[in-house]
Amino acid sequence: MRLDVFSIFPEYLAPLDLSLIGRAREKRLLDLTVHDLREWTHDRHRTVDDTPYGGGAGMVMKPEPWGEALDTVLSATPDVPVAEVSPSGESVAGASSAGEPVAEVPAAEDSAAAVRARPVLIVPSPAGEVFTQTTARELASRDHLVFACGRYEGIDQRVIDWASQRMEVRPMSIGDYVLNGGEVAVLAMVEAIARLLPGVIGNPGSLDEESHEDGLLEYPVYTKPATWRGLDVPSILLSGDHGKVARWRRDQRLRRTAATRPDLLAVLPAGSLDARDSEVLREATTGAQEEEQREAGSSRVEASGSGLAE
Ligand code: 6GU
User: Fold this and answer.
1) Residue nearest atom 8 in ligand 1 by C-alpha distance
2) What is the pTM for the complete model shown?
3) Could you count the other beta carbons within 10 Å of the beta carbon of residue 155?
4) If pLDDT is split at 50, 70 and 90, which confidence band does 17 have?
5) Which residues contact 28 (CB under 8 A, 6 or more apart)?
6) Atom of ligand 1 nearest to the CA of 128
7) 211-310 maps to which CATH number?
8) Beta-strand pair 227-228/231-232
9) pLDDT of res. 300
């Protein structure tokens, strides 16, 4: 898989040299390049931002460096002709960057290979679609991902609109909070995607029962010693009964999910739960409701004691 990351803080992406991702790059499973967006500026100050039209706080990333930066990745992709840019920065006659869109975004009749090969532009933004394990799997099936890290108040919208006519563009958020820029989000997304590629993770079996892979959270894990600071490992894990261990782990996954992420249970695909699963969930949810009622009851008592119930 080819990955191109554009940023004005390329050093922010240094962790991509480390650990499993770094090893995948060494093994040539990942062809990852981090680019400094300022390479596509032409002024002495290497300016990448300007004040927003219409006024308001902050600065906006100028379209020109982004346009030229994206031209370089698109020109390396077969069947997606874009402007050839002369050394002076002028578009060469016959090039199409300022003219009609040259490549349409996925048509139904496109072959799977053509879809795979079409570059995807991922634009990290708190206003994007939420990145999930499903997104990671979709993106892991593509040959070429391009990440455009915005800073300040964001990138001039015309860059997104222009790119949308030439590549698949996915504005992506990694959660409901605000970061200073896209770099940290790209670290998270690249790691989530790259670890799904064949050969990146030593033991592919470890992908199977992970949190989110099948819509449930992971079961708790234990290692030696069997007793630590007075706390015992659940005895079933020492029993050697693989069937019982598997059932216990599944019960734990269901209870954990019900307790901390009930939203995930609501969207499980039909047929994901067997009769025992449903029973465990029924117990887990009635237990939680009883607790809630107890808490509500005790806070009513506290409130009346303090005179707040009147
Ligand atoms: Cl992808 N970018 C920024 N700047 N903030 C975010 C985010 C992305 N996802 C959540 N918050």
Assistant:
1) 125
2) 0.83
3) 25
4) confident
5) none
6) 1
7) 1.10.1270.20
8) antiparallel
9) 59
Print the SS3 string covering 37-100.
HHHHCCCCCCCCEECCCCCCCCCEECHHHHHHHHHHHHHCCCCCCCCCECCCCCECCCCCCCCC
Q: Is the dihedral of CA 111, 117, 121, 127 positive or negative?
A: positive
Which value, to the nearest 10 degrees, does the dihedral of the CA atoms of residues 150, 154, 159, 161 take? Answer: 120
Q: Looking at the chain, which residues constitute the CATH 1.10.1270.20 domain(s)? A: 211-310
Residue-averaged pLDDT of the chain: 87
**Choice from 129, 174, 186 to test ligand 1 binding pocket (greatest atom count within 8 A of CB):** 174
| CATH 3.40.1280.10 domain position(s) in the chain | 2-77+119-204
Q: Hey, CA dihedral for 81, 86, 90, 92, is it positive or negative?
A: negative
Domain 2-77+119-204 matching CATH 1.10.1760.20: the answer reads no
The more confident residue out of 286 and 246 is 246
CA of 117 to the centre of ligand 1 (A): 27
**Tokens for 272?**
């994901």
Which of 186, 197, 188 lies closest to 6 in space, CA to CA? Answer: 186
The residue-averaged pLDDT of 21-25 equals: 89
